[in-house]
Design brief:
It is built from 14 helices and 24 strands. The protein has 423 residues and is α/β, with parallel strands linked by helices. Helix 8 packs parallel to helix 12 (373-385) and helix 10 runs parallel beside helix 12 (373-385). Bound molecules: ligand EPZ.
Length: 423
């Protein structure tokens, strides 16, 4: 059996502009939100990713008709749901599938969704999602690996999250928009993708106050209306490309940057000595890699340093003279790129959720393996700089969150190709 890998012959100069596609983590909940109300939706700036294909199959199994109109636009027709069960074989491929529970409860007051598996980076429980649904009056039963939820009526209530979970916030928002009465979510996650979901729902006629704050007030309405919407740009892809720009001494510019979406990340880079010029949505780096200084970073819920940029930042820190530190506080096991980077000559030691990175002159090429989508992209970046041949295995992880990565890099002059390897 064969799977795909990237073969990179690194160490050569590359330059040009990397453009950022629509945000995966906004597109997924917005696609799911079309379950809430019948009608025809047009979604634009949707990224071409494996996760979108996976979700499309799940939503079609529930009864939605989904048509790809052009490279980045979709038409979704909801004529009512033909099933209220999201099966394990679909949910296990992508845990964000669990987001279908809130909309199904809003639409039919009933849902049966497979518990999502954990994944490489953590156990990924859904207790906060279920706590939110129960607060809205849903009776929850867990049976043979499935979560069953049912209620005669969704009643607005106060939901206080112990942790500002992105998915739990999104699921409860989507259940609450048609509940009877007002729902208050305290300690709601504040990631920009949640603002995008809320803006989409408001365009459908939902009443949501406090968007962007940690306290959301949702007044349920009887009916919502389908609409047309364009997805925000992907801030994590933007951050990944900004690291590439810094690694190549500013010879790469990045199109599709919204500084506000990744302020903590950009200001940490500036603390390291990076200088940027942002004109409109195009970022240019004005410093050379050798000018950067080490730093300490800690991943936090938004607006803190994003966990999804932890591994790209680590790749950069490997190349900065001195010792940097990066602490991961969101997921319990998100350092699996460390041994892979060390195979490429990096000098990283870890102690629990703390990684200590001592700068090296350059990576050395090696065969490595992606463990999650962001780690995979970080290994690709390292391979572009390392002299010789780097093979990045299991790039199905990378394809989940980066659109045509090798094609974009080839356009900059990178020697990277997609190959098949026997396993
Ligand atoms: C979203 O995952 C993103 N995925 C992740 O991006 C991102 O890393 C994460 O938010 C944090 O920003 C999508 O949006 C599709 P969480 P999600 O619920 O919603 C714990 C990527 O690279 N938790 O905020 O699953 C959980 O175990 C992916 O694109 C509970 O304990 O994140 C984790 O430790 C990776 N109980 C922490 O909270 C719950 O009920 C953060 O999880 C829910 C979560």
């Amino acid at each position: 059996m064969s799977i795909e890998a990237f073969k990179i012959i690194g160490g050569k100069k590359i330059s040009g502009e990397l453009s950022v596609e629509g945000a995966k983590n906004a597109a997924l909940p917005i696609f799911v939100a079309t379950l809430i109300e019948k009608g025809t939706y047009i979604l634009k700036n949707v990224p071409n990713l494996r996760d979108i294909v996976t979700l499309t199959k799940l939503l079609e199994s529930l009864g939605l008709e989904i048509e790809k109109l052009s490279n980045h636009s979709y038409k979704i027709v909801n004529t009512g749901l033909k099933s209220l069960e999201a099966s394990y074989d679909l949910v296990k491929k992508m845990r964000a599938s669990f987001l279908v529970m809130g909309p199904m409860l809003a639409h039919e007051k009933k849902a049966r969704v497979s518990l999502p598996g954990g994944c490489a980076i953590g156990s990924r429980p859904v207790d906060l999602h279920l706590k939110g649904f129960e607060a809205l009056g849903v009776k929850i039963n867990i049976d043979h690996g499935y979560v069953e939820g049912e209620t005669a009526e969704l009643i607005g209530n106060k939901v206080v999250f112990d942790f500002p979970s992105v998915g739990a916030t999104e699921n409860v928002i989507m259940a609450a928009v048609k509940a009877t009465g007002i729902t208050i979510i305290e300690n709601a996650a504040r990631e920009p993708e949640i603002d995008d979901l809320c803006n989409f729902l408001v365009k459908m006629g939902a009443k949501i106050n406090g968007i962007g704050s940690g306290r959301l007030e949702i007044e349920g309405v009887k009916k919502l209306y389908p609409c047309e919407y364009s997805i925000m740009p992907d801030r994590i892809v933007a951050g990944t490309f900004i690291v590439a720009s810094l690694m190549f001494d500013g010879d790469i510019s990045v199109k599709g940057v919204v500084r506000d979406h990744i302020e903590s990340f950009i200001s940490k880079l500036e603390e390291m000595g990076a200088e940027f010029e942002i004109e409109g949505d195009v970022l240019r780096t004005k410093t050379k890699l050798s000018q950067l200084k080490p730093a300490k970073a800690t991943t936090m819920p938004h607006p803190g340093f994003p966990t999804d940029l932890q591994s790209p930042m680590m790749t950069l820190m490997c190349l900065v003279d001195g010792t940097s530190e990066i602490k991961e506080t969101i997921f319990e096991n998100r350092f699996m790129h460390v041994p892979e980077l060390n195979r490429m000559g990096a000098n990283i030691s870890t102690d629990a959720n703390m990684a200590r990175v001592t700068g090296i002159k350059n990576f050395s090429s090696a065969e490595v393996m992606a463990s999650d989508l962001r780690a995979g992209a970080s290994l690709v970046l390292a391979g572009l700089l390392a002299d010789g041949e780097t093979i990045v295995n299991r790039i199905y992880h990378v394809d989940r969150g980066y659109e045509n990565l090798e094609i974009k890099l080839q356009a900059l002059g990178a020697n990277i190709e997609r190959i098949k390897v026997e396993i």
